[in-house]
Each structure stands twice: as C-alpha cells, then as structure tokens.
Amino acid sequence: MSKVYIITGSSTGIGFALAEYFGKKGNKVYGLSRKMTDSPHFTCLPTDVTNNDDVKNAVATILEKESKIDVLINNAGMGMVGAVEDSSQDEILKLFNLNLVGTVQMIGAVMPTMRAQKSGQIINISSIGSEMGLPFRGFYSASKAAVDKVTEAMRYEVEQWNVNVCSLHLGDIKTNIADNRIKTNVSAPYQGIFEKVYTLMNAHVDKGNEPLEVATYIDQLLQKSSWKAHYYFGAFGQKIGVPLKWILPQNLYEHLMKKYNNLK
C-alpha cells in the first residue's frame, strides 16, 4: 500500500537516495531541501527547515494533495569540525539551528496530522558519534546527542497516538558531507594534530557504506510494528564503540578512541 513520505535534505547524499528509493517503490515522496532537485521518483519542495514559515508552508502544500502523512525522515543536517576552543558562537548556533531546531520544527509541522490519523513514523537521523565526544567534532556530537534526547522524550509523549519515533545512528556513509561541513579556523596549537584527525576522518567517509544501504535498512525498520529508541547502522568497528563505552573503564576507552582517531 502506497504511503506518503516526507524526507528532508533530499537534494544529495543520503536524503536523495532515500527519496529515490521509496519513490521507486510506488510511494508518494516529498523531498524538502533548499536546493531544487529534479527526479521522476519524488516531488521536490524547496524548503529551508530552519525557517518555520517555510516548513509550515511545505507541509500545508503536501496536505493539499494528500490526505495523510505516514513517514517523516529528518535527514537534513550538517557536520562541523574544529577544536572546541576555536569554535565561534555563530558557527555553533548555525549547526544547532539546522541539526536540532530544523528537526524539531519538522516534527511540529507533521504531528497534528499524525495525531489526527492516530498513526505515523518519525525517524531522526543521528550519528554513532552522538554517543561519544569525537575529537575535533565536539559540537557535531553534541548537536546529534541533543536530537537523541528529544527523540527519547517524544517517545513518551506521542505513544498515545500510535506515533513511533526513533533515532537512527549512522556511521560513515559515502557522501559529499565534507563539502558542506562548517570548518572552524583552527588555531596554531591545534593545527598539527587536527590535520592528522581530519585526513583520517575524510578517509573513513570515502570508505563508508553506500547511501542505498541506508535506504534498505530504513525500509526494513519501517516494517516493524514498534521501535526501540535507538538503532545503529555502519561499519562494525564504529558500531562497537557504543557498547564498549558502556562497559570499559573510561581511561581504556579513551585510549582506544585515541588510537582509532590517529591520536596515538
């Protein structure tokens, strides 16, 4: 049975792959992104998810054509790299405005419909890196961790209307994320160590999973009648970092993280 999907950040990368994948399966897919994208498989609505008027207008346009909204995938987001000390207020606010506020505004726009129809599925795209403070990605980790806590809180609040919500924590996915990251001006004391970490960071992305693999995983997830709060998708070496953080002594865990991030 055809469903109505809203997928944010659909112009490139994971969002585009998701929109194409679910559109090809015969669903009505609306891709929201700031940049217009042509595809025979989904309808693009130019939308800045950090602008609440844009968000409300986009959802209103969809509801003029459709009688329901079944699935929201909050994929729009960006990365940020640099030392905590060097990061500016403007950079931090820009990051949180997209990764957290944009996500919350999308949820607020679709929830009245999902509440009325007493059904809905909302997937907030997070990161394995939200479970730990990644070196030189501290604010990115923090922004995605904030999304996770909002997700956990929402699960209690919307269960009464049969709306499922979860965070999907992704490892490195082969996309152009590096082109859109906020990159702070790295000060002299950090430059040497930052370049080592940054080079490895980009190498991990280049060797990451394909966006289509994320789409097939989400398709399987959407078949479940109930969800856990958190799901993890990515390379084993990245996923294993989550339970290890829970069970290992802090000093040992930090030692392993330093080795993984080329800091040893």
Automatic annotation (TrEMBL):
InterPro entries: NAD(P)-bd_dom_sf, SDR_fam, SDR_oxidoreductase. Gene3D superfamilies: NAD(P)-binding Rossmann-like Domain. The keyword Oxidoreductase applies. Pfam families: adh_short. It comes from the Bacteria. This is Short-chain dehydrogenase. The keyword RNA-binding does not apply. Belongs to the short-chain dehydrogenases/reductases (SDR) family. PANTHER family: SHORT CHAIN DEHYDROGENASE (PTHR43976), SHORT-CHAIN DEHYDROGENASE_REDUCTASE FAMILY PROTEIN (PTHR43976:SF16).
